[in-house]
């Protein structure tokens, strides 16, 4: 159906399962994993600590090439800030994650943070799609710009503070999701209430 062979699809599904985004039922298929808000809120604390560590390394180890790339991404984001869609932001977000990890120069961290980034990108997508606050996207963009600026100018404390602010913003998303979003959005096995 997709025009791809089984091998890349098998690997992609395996990676999604490793990232806890899908559940594989051998010989029965694949199901999107339900979103467990309590678990993901707890994992947010892990991400906070890991992000602080990664940003410290990135500020200390970033080469001129890394800083040039980071400043270029920041300039491009600023020029598109007011008209950026969620899909465009997610592309920037993914690129920023890779750049910061490259600057940190510790390959183990990529394997540790990649699944966490994926989980929280999904939370952000659900929040923006269903709550739909344009200001929310702008706040995400601004928080990422603060992180980029701090890393590019080698200010560890500012980078950590900007990261903490981003994590606080994500944590606030959980409260809104719990309060305002139909649970069927979070778990496809829940039957919707017809009214």
From TrEMBL:
Instruction: Give the GntR C-terminal domain ranges.
Output: 42-169
Alphabetical keyword list? DNA-binding, Transcription, Transcription regulation
Output the InterPro entries linked to this UniProt entry. Answer: GntR_C (IPR011711), TF_FadR/GntR_C (IPR008920)
Give one Pfam hit by family name: FCD
DNA-binding keyword on record? yes
Instruction: Name the Gene Ontology molecular function terms of this record.
Output: DNA binding
Q: Which domain of life is it from?
A: Bacteria
The reply on keyword Transcription is: yes
Supply the PANTHER family for this chain.
Answer: GNTR FAMILY REGULATORY PROTEIN, TRANSCRIPTIONAL REGULATOR, GNTR FAMILY
Q: What is this protein called?
A: DNA-binding GntR family transcriptional regulator
Q: Which organism is it from?
A: Rhizobium binae
